[in-house]
Amino acid sequence: RHTRYWRDWSSDVCSSDLEAEKQDVLAHQGLFCFIDHHPVSAASDLEFDHVHPYSEGGASAPSNIAALCKKHNREKGSLSLSEFRDRLDLRTFFEGAAKRRLDDLLTAKLGVGGFGQPLETELNSTSIKLFFHGSEPESVPLYRCPSTGESYFYALMPVRHLHNDVQLQPRALEPERLWELYRHLRTHTQLAPGIGRLVGSDVLLFDGQHKAAAQVWAGRDRVECKIYL
């Protein structure tokens, strides 16, 4: 993969240009391994690759290139730099914990107080206006279940408004299932939305916590949800 990367990136540039681009990467990153930020003694201890895969549309430009130590470059196998770093971070997240749930993952990614923010709404007979934190309000249609009469809506829900619904979803996250969904949802559509309920101003997710957690771990700030009132 290392050789392929240089052929992709350097096909139209001379070796002096290539060295200059390496130096651009190191000037931004410093003499650290991209994977876990541990220091190295010299630039010769580092190798270079795409952060986001070239095969998935990642740019062959210094902004999408990072340096990593030779040990991690051998260990990552076919994973991209971003995937390998997230894989190691995910292992650390689960280490020494009996159970981890969506709220634990949101805390790890967004910090204490960075999620579960109240969602203010305005309701009428056919739609609901959602006052998302830090963005313009969005109005979406209301639907009614023909069997139960319960009302619900669909939205790309900012993850900062989510909580795990511990009453209806007490199960813990499964590490391997989460990792598989992380890899799948980086390049595939989420076919079914996560399902939650709006209780007061709290958005509580009770189905699809693995899908939501996987996308949050991959850096998404919104996830597809169906929310019951």
Secondary structure layout plus pairing:
Elements: H1 2-10, H2 15-29, E1 46-50, E2 65-69, H3 70-75, H4 81-94, H5 102-110, E3 120-123, E4 127-131, E5 138-141, E6 143-144, E7 151-158, E8 162-164, H6 175-187, E9 194-199, E10 202-207, H7 209-217, E11 222-228
Parallel strand pairs: 8-10, 9-11
Antiparallel strand pairs: 1-2, 3-4, 4-5, 6-7, 7-11, 9-10
Helix pairs in contact: 5-7, 6-7
**Gross morphology:** elongated
Number of helical stretches of at least 4 residues = 7
| Extended strand count | 11
Q: In what range is the share of β-strand residues? A: 15-25%
Task: Give the biggest sheet.
Answer: 6 strands, mixed
Which percent bin holds the helix content? Answer: 25-40%
Radius of gyration (Å):
21 Å
What's the mean pLDDT score? Answer: 88
Please give the alpha-carbon distance between the first and last residues.
50 Å
Oligomer: single chain
| Structural class by helix and strand composition | alpha+beta
Unreliable runs: 1-13
Report strand order across the widest sheet.
Answer: 6-7-11-9-10-8
The helix-strand sequence is HHEEHHHEEEEEEHEEHE
What does this 3D model show about the protein?
- There is one protein chain.
- The protein has 229 residues and is α+β, with helices and mostly antiparallel strands.
- The chain is built from seven helices and eleven strands.
- A six-stranded mixed β-sheet has the order 6-7-11-9-10-8.
- Helix 5 packs parallel to helix 7 and helix 6 crosses helix 7 (209-217).
- The protein is elongated and about 65 Å long.
